[in-house]
Amino acid sequence: MNTPDLDELRRLRRARDRMDREFAEPLDVPTLARTALMSTAHFSRRFREAYGETPYAHLMTRRIERAKALLRRGDVTVTEACFAVGCTSLGSFSSRFTEIVGETPSAYRARDHRDSQAVPTCTAMILGRPMRGAVAVTEPSRIEEASTAGAS
Fold first, then answer.
1. Quick one: pLDDT band at residue 78, thresholds 50, 70, 90?
2. Which is nearest to 138 in space by CA: 87, 100, 103, 112?
3. How would you classify residue 102: left for phi > 0, otherwise alpha for psi between -120 and 50, otherwise beta?
4. Which of 18, 64, 103, 148 has its CA 20 to 30 A from that of 91?
5. Which three-class secondary structure state does DSSP give residue 55?
6. CA-CA distances (angstroms) from residue 106 to 20, 60, 90?
7. What's the pTM?
8. Cβ neighbours around 135 below 10 Å, total
9. pLDDT digits (tens, 9 = 90+) for 124-138
């Protein structure tokens, strides 16, 4: 496994930044590879080496992260959140949301999120980033822990 050079890392970051910015757009790996000026296979391999996840996994994590924010507000349905973040299949969105977050989008939307509203947005974005299988549903979220710590 070769270490990417600085130019290659810049191009990978450009593609990652595009995913973070345009997550609601219909992005696919070949399009992102063109952004990084790489072949699709080389881009996928190097992206995973640099960031520890595939480009598709990063994009879906970003979409789920944004969907969580929409669902916390409570004024959008799961279907609306699904399409707002760029997903085209409610079934695939729900499956991926459940895999990453640990509960269904409907259960997440129905849960009381008032405690997490006291946490500044910048902190919530860092602590609330979905991490595959890292937090069980029964454990308090990292945001809830931060809001409790800030209240002491």
1. very high
2. 103
3. left
4. 18
5. helix
6. 24, 18, 12
7. 0.73
8. 15
9. 555 555 555 544 444
- CA distances 65 to 24, 53, 78, 111, 117, Å, are 12, 16, 14, 16, 16
The per-residue b/e assignment along 10-25, b for 16 or more CB within 10 angstroms, e otherwise, is ebbeebbebbeebbee
- Model pLDDT, residue 128: 56
3-state helix, strand, coil in the chain (%, to 5): 65, 0, 35
**∠ at Cα 23 (28, 59), nearest 5°?**
60
Cα-to-chain-centroid distance, residue 149: 25
d(Cα 113, Cα 43) in Å, to the nearest integer? 38
Each domain of the chain, given as residue ranges in start order, spans 6-52, 64-151
User: Has domain 64-151 been given CATH number 1.10.10?
Assistant: yes
